[in-house]
Design goal:
Elements (H helix, E strand, L loop, with lengths): L12 H12 L6 E3 L14 E5 L4 E5 L23 H12 L4
Parallel strand pairs: 1-2
Antiparallel strand pairs: 2-3
Length: about 100
């Protein structure tokens, strides 16, 4: 179920304070955050974040296309390593074709 419109988007207060401080700081050091549930708002455009995925921090720079999404959508928590080697062997003869 979606969040009620009258409540507005959810953003951690501590994260908003860090974004305000980031805009004033000339160094522009990326903001480390664990708040994957926070919604990206227009104030975040151009800000660099490091979003925790449970194992490491994923660097992300917010663009206009990301507004309205959650921070967690841009740091996947699972890594796809491919299918088993047996599947690759089964597909190999079909690619090479029949011997002449």
């Amino acid at each position: 179920m979606a969040r009620a419109v009258w409540k507005g988007p959810f953003v951690e207060e501590s994260l908003m304070k860090k974004v305000d401080k980031y805009k004033e700081d000339p160094k522009k050091i990326p903001i480390k955050t664990w708040s994957r549930k926070s919604t990206i708002i227009p104030d975040f455009v151009g800000v660099s974040f490091q979003i925790y995925n449970g194992k490491k921090f994923i660097p992300i720079t917010i663009s206009e296309d990301m507004v309205g999404h959650k921070l967690g959508e841009f740091s996947p928590t699972r890594t796809f390593f491919g299918h088993t080697p047996a599947d690759k062997k089964a597909a190999k003869p079909a690619e090479t074709g029949v011997k002449k």
